[in-house]
Amino acid sequence: MGEQRFENPQRVEKTGEVRAATETPWGSDDHEPATVIVLAGGRSTRMGVDKRLLLLDGEPMIQHIHRQVAPHFDELLIAGGADGQLAFLNARVVPDEVPGQGPLQGIASALAVSRHDLNFVIACDIPLVNLALLGALLREANDCDCAVPVTPDGRCEPLFAVYRKSALPAMRRALQAGERRVVAAFQYCRVKTVPLASPDEIKNINTLDDYREFLSAR
After folding, report:
1. pTM for this structure?
2. Tens-place pLDDT, residues 128-143
3. Angle of helix 102-113 relative to helix 168-176, nearest 10 degrees?
4. Burial class (CB in 10 A: 0-12, 13-18, 19+), 20
5. 34-216 adopts what CATH topology?
6. Is the pLDDT confidence value at 17 over 60?
7. Integer distance in angstroms from the first to the last C-alpha of the chain?
8. Buried b (16+ CB within 10 A) or exposed e, 95-111
9. What is the residue extent of each domain of the chain?
């Protein structure tokens, strides 16, 4: 797989391949240690309520995600959730180094304290973790700074992606330039991409209508 460097993060070559699901995203017990970072920041402006705490199967959405990912990683960090409302997770909460700078700052702050070079980042509004896709991203995260899914129309999905600590200088460079979007750091990174067959492989809940639709489909 070739490395990708690009100026426009919306135009990327599709290089990865999603394989069949396995019992775990790793596919074997012999794997590189890694950290999972759950992004818990943001103001839920489109939702109007704290989406982290919306109930799914009787538990807050962020706990629903936590339960799916925690068994597969050696460390779990909650990024940008330093408001005291997430103590029930019994996980380390990493506050943003500079508050109010968006998801890019949340990822950078967590990468800086992560115990491992390899890190999987997932937003707290993606209730179902696609383990097959996660496995593909982990396999692609060699000789690069990050492995990122791309939709059929070429849109990056940086909040369900794998990052190495080597991406941190690029993130800080973008932050210093006043950027808050994660994709702004990609122009300074070695990026590998994994194509999605459908945008629905990563399902976000951004509004109350999304939430109701998700519940009705279960």
Report:
1. 0.86
2. 999 999 999 999 999 8
3. 140
4. exposed
5. Spore Coat Polysaccharide Biosynthesis Protein SpsA; Chain A (3.90.550)
6. no
7. 37
8. bbeeeebbbbbbbbbbb
9. 34-216
Residue 168 to residue 112: CA distance in whole angstroms: 7
Residue with tokens 């194509």: 195
For 48-75, how does the pLDDT look when each residue is reduced to its tens digit (9 = 90+)?
678 888 988 889 999 999 999 999 999 9
